[in-house]
Amino acid sequence: MDHVPSLVVDNGSVNEEVKINKEKEKRLIVLGRNIHTMCLEVTEPDVDDEVTGDREAYMAGVLARYKRALTERTKHHLGYPYNLDFDYGALSQLQHFSINNLGDPFIESNYGVHSRQFEVGVLDWFARLWELEKNEYWGYITNCGTEGNLHGILIGREVFPEGILYASRESHYSVFKAARMYRMECVKIDTLWSGEIDCDDFKAKLLQNQDKPAIINVNIGKFLHHCFSLSIPFSLPLTLFILTLTTIAGTTVKGAVDDLDLVIKKLEEAGFSQDRFYIHCDGALFGLMMPFVKRAPKVTFKKPIGSVSVSGHKFVGCPMPCGVQITRLNYVNALSRDVEYLASRDATIMGSRNGHAPIFLWYTLNRKGYRGFQKEVQKCLRNAHYFKDRLVEAGIGAMLNELSSTVVFERPHDEEFVRRWQLACKGNIAHVVVMPNITIEKLNEFLNELLEKRATWFQDGKDQPYCISSDVGEKNCLCALHK
Amino acid sequence: MDHVPSLVVDNGSVNEEVKINKEKEKRLIVLGRNIHTMCLEVTEPDVDDEVTGDREAYMAGVLARYKRALTERTKHHLGYPYNLDFDYGALSQLQHFSINNLGDPFIESNYGVHSRQFEVGVLDWFARLWELEKNEYWGYITNCGTEGNLHGILIGREVFPEGILYASRESHYSVFKAARMYRMECVKIDTLWSGEIDCDDFKAKLLQNQDKPAIINVNIGKFLHHCFSLSIPFSLPLTLFILTLTTIAGTTVKGAVDDLDLVIKKLEEAGFSQDRFYIHCDGALFGLMMPFVKRAPKVTFKKPIGSVSVSGHKFVGCPMPCGVQITRLNYVNALSRDVEYLASRDATIMGSRNGHAPIFLWYTLNRKGYRGFQKEVQKCLRNAHYFKDRLVEAGIGAMLNELSSTVVFERPHDEEFVRRWQLACKGNIAHVVVMPNITIEKLNEFLNELLEKRATWFQDGKDQPYCISSDVGEKNCLCALHK
Questions:
Q1: Which CATH number fits domain A94-367: 3.30.750.24, 3.40.50.300, 3.90.550.10, 3.40.640.10?
Q2: What is the pTM assigned to this prediction?
Q3: For the complex shown, is ipTM > 0.85?
Q4: Measuring CA to CA, how many Å separate A253 from each of A21, A169, A476, B377?
Q5: B contact test, residue of A9, A143, A310, A346 with most B CBs within 10 A
């Protein structure tokens, strides 16, 4: 398997492939273990297995050890934005049903073991949040954020077959994958150091391509510095309350968010009328975390956007990956086709769709409500601030894209440590995503361990903290040069 | 929502949109209910909900009613090839973990709560079945059969960017969706009445397009009439045993299978050398059901095929949709790209991937082994024969594509009945897929109800049985003209 570059294999040997290129864009680091070394082989049962019970005992042992490992890994889990704090005991009674929402959520197929009634309830909730009428939206619960992006960009391409895809360099990799899959021309836009799209560069590139429609991936919302203005008027009726909501998402690594209003303004300035662009809003990480701020620019279908997707397993917390995709109904009619086999339209990317995920989402949304989410968001933001302050106090360069609760900091110099805490890294930076299950206690545990390790890495000056000013700005960098 | 054609809405009114076109290809029938009428709304909790417990009680009530409906729907379930006979009690302890096999199964990402060791065990099992060495294959567990087809065809396109996609008219609709998504030229091939690809038409169309490489979707295996030759030499060692296996799959509606060897022969005859074609084998429904026959032509990577996909939730039985995709490692290296965020390659269609499905598959494969699957296949084939014979005895036109255990018969004249039994229909035909959970008792119940209903449909000659000869051949049709 020399095709699979691996950094550390189980016997502890290091097998590194690091290609460093002057151009930051081309810097590739491939980490990870070749899992064949830890594969759980499937073997044919012995003829007498049913009698002896050996096999059952073996499998029970494997599962018990696996559960122990999961518990341990779940405990040390900081780098990925998954809320692991959920309790779905009430749903375990449904686990043994083969629930499949084949095809379109709004048209019942003949396969009756589905959960469309839950799915549509969840979709309605999101459509209401983003101000699109029930009879004007279409959507579905996807397998993951990538499927939402693939779907949104595909709609854009079907609406504008000759359109060019514009996306900031910090966009999720699935956006560039979509361009390749769909054979679309793709223009990468620079970012500010915050990770936010550079709208001047965006406009310049639009002006170079005025003859073709624009399909834009926007990492939704706006990067805001006044992060504690979370006073939500709970006494207001729900409809009014929703009007004050905003959705803000983050790019994958830095947790920064693009300014949707500015993007639309630049499109206008470059002479693109509304019938010549399509905006897909990728709310992957924080689409559900950030709506709880007043006076922030809103993500709403009252603005000229085409689709919004969020991940369901991230802030909501769900034992399986899933996402929500909402778009305008008239677009989907262009995309879909009739498939008699299913007695349904074919407007989704996947055919068979997991019917358990909608029930998990429905259960959580119903139980927590907006109020419950708001409390959790506040806690996360408080904890993220605490964490960032503690890092800086300890002399470690760090930045908080405040509303995303993502703390970006100097990449630890030991890959084993990175893996132990499951940090997502890019170049010289790592990030911790403070989710509801990341308590002050867990952050302290991490900090103590980091400081201890750091003392050994930098002992006797044998190594130096990385400069991360190009990622987080000079004022947030604490390398030898900038501190 | 007048964009959503619906046949029956909850108040019982009928709102039919049936466009019948002389050309069979263009006959569209869109069934199904608009689910907004049965949506379970998500509402904001009252301030005192936590005190009163009203909300918990409401939700428990919804879930209890839903469970009752699922039980009922699972009982009346004949048309879709899902084995609903499984017991995963031992795995319920893992339900509350957020298990995510982000990215590539063979490279551990920094996100540690995964099940790659199970996934690779399952993939090894399938690679062994299809005779591809561990260090020569790549694969992953997909969300469904559609993802496998999207992946296989994408590899084909990346290997042959100018290639034309060839697929029989009876291929799964996801194959044609792929062509559209990927902007590939697509040529539809006629089928024989069995549903098998018409290789003469295939060759003729190859000859018309000799200047471009060919990417072929093959519904794997061969349509065989001698279906009880299932004597597997259990005394042989496993390696020898596997050499006698064959995989045969079915097209979606008729359960027929294409003749892989003949497809390869036609490619040769049309002057396509092995470096000018790519074959994706879609084993959606029966890829795991049919390997247990000796002397049948085999699906094996020793033949010039590029990828094989099967569904995991169908014959195996799994509470969530999933599938298995296996391809040659050298192809995937062309497809993948390095994504530092994940510390992994990006060779899968989806990013986040459900980590529970591999554990379900691993558990079942380990428990049943080849022997267990063989017993179930035998039972299904016996029951399918029984069912087809009973239909014909009762004067109902029917056909059994023997090795697929799919019985095709005259479409019932009452859509309510079709929905009650969850039959998949196309034009004038319906099908029942005899899976391990479809017992003789259940088939009898269905037959009795069908005969009772039929007596009323055809009472006083007010309606006539459909002619289905174009679908099943004259000898299997029992309409007024052909009986």
A1: 3.40.640.10
A2: 0.81
A3: no
A4: 20, 11, 16, 49
A5: A143
